[in-house]
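Quick one before lunch.
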Amino acid sequence: MDRIRITGGRPLNGTIPISGAKNAALPLLISSLLTEDRLTLKNVPNLADVNLLVRILRNHGVDLAVDGKRPGPAMHLGETFHLTAREIVDLTAPYELVSRMRASFWVLGPLLARMGQAKVSLPGGCAIGTRPVDLHLTGLKALGAEIDIDAGYVIAKAPKGGLRGARVVFPKVSVGATHNVLLAAALAKGETVIENAAREPEIGDVAMCLSKMGAKVEGIGTSTLRVQGRDRLEGTVHTVLPDRIEAGTFAMAVAATGGDVTLEGARIADVQSAFDVLAQTGAQVTATDSGIRVVRNGNGIAPVSIETEPFPGFPTDLQAQLMALLSLADGTSVIRETIFENRFMHVQELARLGADIQLHGDTATIRGVKTLKGAPVMATDLRASVSLVIAGLAGEGDTVINRVYHLDRGFEQLEQKLSRCGADIERLTSG
Ligand code: UD1
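Model of the uridine-diphosphate-N-acetylglucosamine complex:
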């Protein structure tokens, strides 16, 4: 298994191109199931999760052609995927594939809407909590689906004549359930109103793509989405929006190591809450013509207290990275995780590097230390593992991160992007 070695203590300076957003690319790829026409997606990041989803989609009958060559070793310009689901040949998404990535469960809505039935394994994904799918199923039932659970599979059937538009009121904000119902509603009869919808920019990106495919979606960016379903959707061309979590992660890294980095292509409005928090820690953050510039020179890191929240609040996907930064703050910070109940697995590993963090239920109290010291550590999930990268970059000496396949799920060319900015980081490939 590959490992990553980092020798810490170097500031980051330069430009980092931000890739297409994983969390938008996945549902956009799934949208290809809704039409027999060709869907062209530009700026698709080259990630393990994308490759896994492609395997799942191929199993359903999606044909994929990719333009151009794989990216070179130092930069990524995004790949262009042409997806065509002329015929759906298999209505089952099997356990072996779905259990490896939770977002693959989102094929349920589109398969059901297009084919009138689907059988999808209950998901797996990161071990960051129980992560049920009750909201997805309640939403699809409101559109008329009949749902049974049998031997670990969700078996869903649409009524005669197909899914029909309805009012769906989510009791809790869920990104995945919003995607699943939105995708299904695009091919349902009549209007669907989704209330208490997630407002994440990735939902907006999918909604815009669906609109281009012919399903009118109103209320993009708000918590009420109105979807006019169509009998048939058309192909289109759509560009995946930049990855705000990747941008936020590199920004935290710069704040931790010091330096001056421009995050090329990043959009500040997509991750305003995190950049506001960064500014409170003492980093300078400015929107520029090409992206976002983050600078921290000389001054210390001020402690802050935050809670994770659905968009537009502070994203849970940046909680671990912020904690790595605050481990080096001049004082005590508090982080409350309100989205997932078990998303503190990075705490033990950060402690191995010398961080002083106390956990009480959903709250972490972080007492800043003067220095972190390199050590071997274990990546436990996607965002936790990148917090160890940040701590390693800002610490003294060598950190070796094991199980980096977690990183490969969601960060494209991570070592290359960081080493171009002066980091001493390399991948140790097991032979
Ligand atoms: C998505 C993101 C993930 C991010 C998360 C929260 C993708 C591919 N993944 O995950 O990176 O961390 O949003 O921003 O976009 N819940 C229920 N019942 C359900 C569904 C969810 O109780 O049916 C709960 C979950 O357990 C969790 C909360 O709702 O506590 C939010 O989960 P959700 O927004 O659905 O996260 P995902 O879509 O899985």
